[in-house]
Amino acid sequence: MSCKRKEKAAVVSQEQIAENIYSMWIQTEEISDFAVPGQFISMYTEDQSKLLPRPISLCEIDREKKRLRVVYRVTGKGTGTEQFSRLRPGESIQILGPLGNGFPMEPGTGKKVCLIGGGIGVPPMLELSKQLYAEKQLVMGYRDELFLTEEFEKNGTLYIATEDGSAGTPGNVMDAIAQKGLSPEVIYACGPAPMLRAVKSYAEEKHIPCYVSMEERMACGVGACLACVCRTPEIDAHSQVHNKRVCKDGPVFLSTEVEI
Amino acid sequence: MSCKRKEKAAVVSQEQIAENIYSMWIQTEEISDFAVPGQFISMYTEDQSKLLPRPISLCEIDREKKRLRVVYRVTGKGTGTEQFSRLRPGESIQILGPLGNGFPMEPGTGKKVCLIGGGIGVPPMLELSKQLYAEKQLVMGYRDELFLTEEFEKNGTLYIATEDGSAGTPGNVMDAIAQKGLSPEVIYACGPAPMLRAVKSYAEEKHIPCYVSMEERMACGVGACLACVCRTPEIDAHSQVHNKRVCKDGPVFLSTEVEI
Amino acid sequence: MKNSAVCDTTVDLAGVKLKNPVMTASGTFGSGEEYSEFVDLNRLGAVVTKGVANVPWPGNPVPRIAETYGGMMNAIGLQNPGIDVFCRRDIPFLKKYDTKIIVNVCGKTTEDYLEVVERLADEPADLLEINISCPNVKEGGIAFGQDPRSAEHITREVKKHAKQPVIMKLSPNVTSIAEMAKAVEAGGADVISLINTLTGMKIDIHRQTFAVANKTGGVSGPAIRPIAVRMVYEAANAVKVPIIGMGGITCAEDALEFILAGASAVSVGTASFYNPMAAVQVAEGIEAYMRQHRAEHIRDLVGIVK
Amino acid sequence: MKNSAVCDTTVDLAGVKLKNPVMTASGTFGSGEEYSEFVDLNRLGAVVTKGVANVPWPGNPVPRIAETYGGMMNAIGLQNPGIDVFCRRDIPFLKKYDTKIIVNVCGKTTEDYLEVVERLADEPADLLEINISCPNVKEGGIAFGQDPRSAEHITREVKKHAKQPVIMKLSPNVTSIAEMAKAVEAGGADVISLINTLTGMKIDIHRQTFAVANKTGGVSGPAIRPIAVRMVYEAANAVKVPIIGMGGITCAEDALEFILAGASAVSVGTASFYNPMAAVQVAEGIEAYMRQHRAEHIRDLVGIVK
Ligand SMILES: Cc1cc2nc3c(=O)[nH]c(=O)nc-3n(C[C@H](O)[C@H](O)[C@H](O)COP(=O)(O)OP(=O)(O)OC[C@H]3O[C@@H](n4cnc5c(N)ncnc54)[C@H](O)[C@@H]3O)c2cc1C
Ligand SMILES: Cc1cc2nc3c(=O)[nH]c(=O)nc-3n(C[C@H](O)[C@H](O)[C@H](O)COP(=O)(O)OP(=O)(O)OC[C@H]3O[C@@H](n4cnc5c(N)ncnc54)[C@H](O)[C@@H]3O)c2cc1C
Ligand SMILES: Cc1cc2nc3c(=O)[nH]c(=O)nc-3n(C[C@H](O)[C@H](O)[C@H](O)COP(=O)(O)O)c2cc1C
Ligand SMILES: Cc1cc2nc3c(=O)[nH]c(=O)nc-3n(C[C@H](O)[C@H](O)[C@H](O)COP(=O)(O)O)c2cc1C
Ligand code: FES
Ligand code: FES
After folding, report:
1. Rounded to whole angstroms, how far apart are CA atoms B195 and B190?
2. What class is the C11-300 domain?
3. Binding site membership of D for substrate: which residues?
4. Which sites are catalytic (chains C, D) (predicted)?
5. Ligand 4 atom closest to residue D133's alpha carbon, by position in its atom list
6. Where in chain C are the domains?
7. Do β-strands D203-204 and D209-210 pair in parallel, antiparallel, or remain unpaired?
């Protein structure tokens, strides 16, 4: 038996931290004992018409108090994430986790590393920035409104990029890296596909090991249904085809292992 | 435009008054303004997998405070009524009403009347007993545990029948009527089909006008879907066949108008 | 600016012009009267009546309905007062409103259908919808709707006798909806509507019996929507006549799925039972979407997802 | 007293004895390994594997799934590692458990199916389930499952080559499930399983595109249960071979609907995704129901609602 389980977690706090962005701490029974940065949990709504999970990355892990923090975007009206945002302290939520592999810590340890987050890919970089022992450059890209920046500042040197130019480097994370002349030895990244694509090609050009956290629609979250695959240049040992499962083999992959 | 409407009503109080029997007061906007004894409301769950209404009779109508009381049975685990029983004051519930015709008051006014309730047919007799100006004999039948008896005692002479013999006449409402030698001039009744059948044949034998409140599964509650019909001995003017709609033409019928 | 554009929601169904593409699904709205207490019928593109036969039909024994997960099952069995009372009472009621009248016609034999169709010739009904897809009656109904040749044949017969344009209503309980759509188009259908209900069954495990007296019933409601959208898409890509899409529409977003898949108009059925305002809200929501997506005419949205 | 009676939950499927009537639905439980972290596989009557073909299949492009009202839609496209790796890796894994192994077989041509069936002859698989009902692949699959003659023919061919008893898995996307059931029975099927998914479509109205890349997908989950129960009932009343019922089972009550309708065994599919313990809970709940209703043997419940 492994460390994955389904739990009913109590909501400890719920806070809106930016437009449509919410931060929630939940009290787990055991899931937090095993969780590592880069892993995610499947969150379930109470709405009986919505049966699939919403996979959400762990933003912070408090092992001592057995709590997890998730920071998530409400994607629209009538969505599951909107329902999560209405949960109040004392209410509870069904979760399954911890899921996925998480960021490998070893490659970055003691090195000059860049942690790159874009949009709703920012939150998972927080726990990584807390746990990774390294010279950390934290490059976070936002459309306009910033969030989690105070927390990041405690865990490394923070570089901000905003699309509307309202803070930090105008543009995206790659623009910030160029402008600030950053030259990491290892990269960890999470964000939208176009950003990951840019980071991947930058890293591969410079021959830097680069770990990307991928996203895909999920049903089981545990590797059974084959919904959440991403393409791989090589034939994958498990699938025997050019596919890896984001939920089980990932969500974190070495950039050279996957097509984005 | 009529008096029927869909409203979100606030729960004022919720109380368990017997095993599986709950009493709830709700605050309406306008529905209570138009409600009369014997009418019902369609109550909707918040469970998105359960879309049909639960028709529940009005047990009390407080026009002044614009409140309605419903007394209902939780029929099993995972049912809509179980969900209603978990509602707490301050929470709200979607309702449609007032629905149905209600008890005609005129035939009983000033007469010696029997109000007969059986099981979960007891509650609707309460508001009737409050509003009807007559010499009222209230014959209420229970399996074992009593409920609402204190309220009834204020509004007429209460006769109780219990199947297990724990209170009043052992047996059913007909046994109580026989034992107590009641001889009503008009009857109003609500309860399970076998009871209504017995009351109907008693009344017809004695040529007493008898109003029965019927029950059937409902979808629309307003007479549009033809789900909730009961058989009629005569061809019905609206349907042109031997069917009347419980939700719209009823739920109260003169016993001679319907087959039970 | 985003919301200021004028937009044209009118729909032309075989020459009949509806003010908007939203109607009520047959059997879920009576003949309009019951719901007129809640809804301004003038705001609907059309009211589709409960199925009417040549003579009164008693329908099936109760229980006639059951709740299912995310939907319901019905076996009303087409209870109706017959065409005479219908023409005398229900059509005049609907005539008072500024909405189109679509009369849904049912029958056991071809002759039954023709009798109703002929009886309606001089009535102010705008369109006839021929129900060859009711799963809840022993004879007629679905028997015509599950075989392409029977469907084509009855369509042709009805067309010969009908004065109004004819909508053929298809059953989803078939292997190929495209084939059925082509068959009724070949028979001369002016418009096709789909889907009727999917045949289902619910068992009461405590009482160890069927939940509806008829054993089987037709499943409707949001649970069946993806199947309905697929069938509308397949039908729209198989025929040229306009399609009225339905099955589980509860809001404008749902209706737009059908329109983008190829429906020229939509019907709201089961949703009215728990939200009497549903059809009107769908009409309003479609207009809002058109403004947001700068669609000048509703037809600019029909079938654009290929 | 009520709960003390001994009750026998064992099921005989073509000579293979399952400890209880509950199995996992193909494609929803991988090859058992992933869910073995949550569930004690020893408590299941059988594990049905994801469909396996003669060679590895890459499956469809993503997105492969979408949420639907009370269910989901999938167009995985039968991605699988091929029979070689399957025999080397997945069968040995399952052999460690005290449960029966049912291998689900898919193919594009009759030859493909036969190759897999022959390759399995000397493997410790207890039963073969032949999937002629996958709506998500262009060739094979459902093409066999929507035509009685093709279905009968492939059944006969498979039976000629199979060493294990053969379950034929039927598609619900047909006009008459009874006819399909009779066809595969005539072809020699030892057991019939149904239903596979109902073909559906979902449109993303904001992006104006299909919600799954394959355009259509198979709908599963509680939303489709009434349709599945009806089909199991019709099939059970049309053939003599045992039936494995599935489609939207989430709990014991759901499973019992299928059993009372005529299924000798049941599969839990989509429900495992949101409740990994679902299948085991179904097995436990069926036993509780048997005690409550004093059914000594599970077969005393099969098909008793007529
Ligand atoms: C490994 C992983 C980690 C993630 N971490 C975060 C996070 O930390 N914070 C955050 O805000 N978001 C995160 N996401 C994205 C998040 O899962 C989706 O935004 C969310 O599922 C949308 O659900 P909804 O209820 O808002 O939308 P709905 O439209 O109601 O969703 C319908 C269905 O589609 C699925 N879906 C919709 N969009 C996505 C998407 N982009 N990715 C995967 N499934 C989707 C939903 O899970 C659901 O099953 C992550 C996704 C993955 C795969
Ligand atoms: C006019 C009328 C007045 C009623 N008044 C009362 C009352 O005051 N108090 C009370 O406790 N009960 C009353 N009932 C019965 C009550 O409607 C049912 O007990 C209730 O709907 C069961 O719902 P559930 O969620 O418990 O069961 P579920 O099994 O979850 O119900 C499933 C579906 O079946 C319907 N249904 C199940 N049983 C019945 C039934 N006996 N009659 C009608 N529909 C049913 C439900 O409404 C729902 O649509 C009345 C019924 C009618 C028709
Ligand atoms: C209670 C009920 C009665 C119905 N009666 C008819 C009918 O008389 N004629 C007909 O063509 N369709 C009838 N239908 C089918 C609906 O018109 C519609 O095709 C189906 O319900 C799918 O739409 P929905 O999911 O929005 O309800 C009926 C449906 C219900 C639920
Ligand atoms: C993600 C997914 C993958 C599936 N893959 C297969 C498959 O490989 N072979 C097969 O015969 N059925 C497959 N099915 C169908 C299921 O086995 C089952 O017949 C169907 O989902 C109905 O049951 P349910 O509602 O309990 O899920 C799949 C279903 C799902 C949801
Ligand atoms: S979500 Fe099922 S395999 Fe990844
Ligand atoms: S519930 Fe629809 S007519 Fe009575």
Report:
1. 8
2. alpha beta
3. 50, 74-78, 131, 196-197
4. 134 (nucleophile)
5. 11
6. 11-300
7. antiparallel
